[in-house]
Amino acid sequence: MDIESLRNKVLNDTLDVIIANLEKNAISEAEITPIADFVLSKIDAVNNEIDVSIFLSELSAKWPMFGNIASIQQGENQEKVEGEVAQGVLNLAQSGKIDEALSLAKSATQPNQL
Amino acid sequence: MTELTVEKAAIEQKGALGKAALTETTTFAGARRLQEIRKEKGPKKAYEAYQSVKPIEELAGASHVERMGIKRNNTTGAKERTPGTAEYRRFEEAGIQVGTIETFLKEGFDKIGDASVRQEIIDNFERALMLWPESASVGPADRRAYIEKRLKDPKFIGRVKHVYEGSLKVTDLFDGKIVEAESAFETAKAEEEAARKKHEANRRAESSVSTRLSLFENDAAGTPRAKLADLERLKRDTPTIEKNIKDMKDEVDDFSSQIEMERTNLRLVLSGRAVTTAAGASTIGDIQTEIARLTGEMRTAKRTLAEEEGKLERITQLEQEKQTLEAEKARIDIDEVELKKVWDAATYELTKNRAIFEDAKNTRATQEDQFVAALKNVLLNASLDDAEGTIKEWEDLRTDRLAELEGKIGDMAAKKILECDKRWTELKPKSTNPKDIKIKKDVIEKDYLTMLQNGPEALMKTILAAEVDAAGARVFSDSDIEHKLADPEFINTVQAELVSQLLFRRMNVKRPTETEVTVIATSKWGEGMIVAAAAKDKRVSDAFELIDKKYGATAGEKFRNLAKDPKSYGIAAGLLALLLGAPFLAVGAGLAASAYSAAGSAVNAPVIG
Q: Within a 13 Å sphere around the CA of B597, how many CA atoms are in the beta-carbon half?
């Protein structure tokens, strides 16, 4: 996914949350303005999935209604990293680099590794 | 009533919605707006639509105001406006308006220092709101609260900025035309003045020459003026003068000879000779005395000669003077024509350029009036736009919501009609077995008669009006029912099913009489259904083909005539069953089962009770 598509996905996901909350009257229109200001001030700094996680963490810290998509994004990132780590551990093990493989596996299990 | 009909009834009252538009906090419209912007322009634009207004740093109002006025200081180039003039009042008003608007835009409504100006803005906004009838149902306090909220809303501030920028473009206060017109006017004025002065100088010269020339003419009474009289007199005296000149010349010559002779005598006496005259011997003294006398006489004669000769010269002088004056007068008259032409042309140019300059000034005055008027209307127009936008948004929402509710109510009504079999059947209490379904003959008979007497629509009305919710309230209002029955699409959807299901149930209870078949066959709805059913089922259309042509050409005619003929009524009744009822014989079990599907029972044909 290119950067523009990634940013649009983030914008659309967060907009979906806002729209859903508007529809159930959980927020007012006036509350969108500070969110819009925050989103527009940060979105151009989003260049990869790590940035997305950071962005969503900050967003959900300010407005908890975004907590769900922040968690989902974090989960997706975790899965992706874990998948990459697993492949790395396997490659290292096959190459006889057992210590490195163990070290990598250990790092992947550390909390807040993202 | 159900929630849907309650909501629909509420929305149908426009005033109530107007109140909602101005006072309620529902956010449905906001959600829809966000979705629409995202759909049309993308997610970033949707966020930008809600972004707080960015600080407004550059507003061009002051520079536009500074352009007002016409006169400039020759040294500094700054505009010079005279207090008390209309131009100055416009300048002041524009400055006040720009100050108010830019304070509003840069610092916010509360920073407008003059409380009366703030109040006027609120009053104007309220007037704008009251142009929409929806606002009338909102109380003054709610209106004020809404207005004060809007005046601080970034979207409203954005509207003001937009209108303000438009007002700065409403007219062109460019000075080029005025400067050009003024320069042309000043040039024309100088040229006219120069031409006028030349012309006046020529006129003065002409006057002087004419005055001098008039001395060579007669006066009004025909009496010659001085120089003419002089000239005429001299001309008249010329012979005398010429004679006098001749005489005087002779005298001078004579005296000259005598003097010469006396001088000779004097030389003789001085040399010792005697000179004797008639008076005796002359002495030196005598001779000298005589010479002196003769010289004096000659001098007198010469003076007289000169005087007479002067008279002749005077004639020449006077004639030359007259000729010179006449020549001068002729030249001045020629110059007069040319100078007058030049002056007239310069006067025309001056008049033209003065008009152009005045026109430019008037145009500028009009432009400045327009500019001030546009500035004065900025906040009012933004309020109008805002009120219109809000009301329109809510009207759109109302229309959409009504259509949505009507659709839902319509679907529910159709569902209830299509579930009509529940009216004619009943599952025994606590039973889940379809075999325990009991046919309610009395209801069938009643509905059947309603249909025959008043048509299927009357039956639909009865069915829908009988629908009540758990609380016992009617599900469909009379207006809902009327609305649906007036909808051909709704009728097309449910009528055939209702009639077919009722005929199916009725035929299982009792065979239709000849009259009943006739009523069905000859009614508009019945014939329409028969024709439609015949067209759908080839077996039926084939059967109609076999029926004698004496009963008619079309399926509808044949059926109607069969039903009317006592001999063929049986055939008609059979066909009716085939057309309308029989199709349900095959699917009747499914129909009944579907009616009770909520009970989760097996599917079987119902028993006739």
A: 6
ipTM: 0.75
Contacts of B79 (CB under 8 A, 6+ apart): B66, B67, B68, B69, B70, B71, B72, B73
Q: Are B506 and B444 in contact (CB under 8 A)?
A: yes
With CA atoms as reference, report the closest residue to B11 among B556, B403, B474. Answer: B403
Nearest CA among B360, B3, B565, A87 for reference residue A104: A87
Closest CA relative to residue B192, chosen from B342, B404, B352: B342
Chain B interface, mutation test: which of A14, A18, A38, A66, most B Cβ atoms within 10 Å?
A: A18
Please write the tens of the pLDDT for every residue from A39-89.
Answer: 999 999 999 888 888 888 899 999 999 988 877 776 666 666 656 666 666
Tokens standing for B97?
């308006």
Residue B131, SS3 per DSSP? coil
Altogether, the residues listed in chain B come to a count of 609
Q: Tell me how far apart the alpha carbons of residues B57 and B105 are, in angstroms, rounded to a whole number.
A: 9
CA distance B452 to B432: 34
Q: Where are the alpha helices (DSSP H) in B136-283?
A: 140-150, 154-168, 176-214, 226-270
Whether B374 contacts B160, CB under 8 Å? no
* Closest by CA position to B379, among listed B135, B150, B169, B142: B150
- Our CA angle for B412, B418, B423, nearest 5°, is 105
Mutate to test the interface with B, among A4, A17, A32, A65 (most CBs of B within 10 A): A32
Four-CA torsion B117, B121, B124, B128, nearest 10 degrees = 170
- Looking at chain A, which residue has its C-alpha nearest residue B54? A37
Q: How many Cβ atoms are within 10 Å of B449's Cβ, its own excluded?
A: 13
**Tokens, residue B475:** 């599900």
pLDDT, chain B, mean: 81
Query: In this predicted structure, what is the pLDDT of residue B595?
Result: 37
CA–CA distance, B562 with B573 (Å, rounded to integer):
9
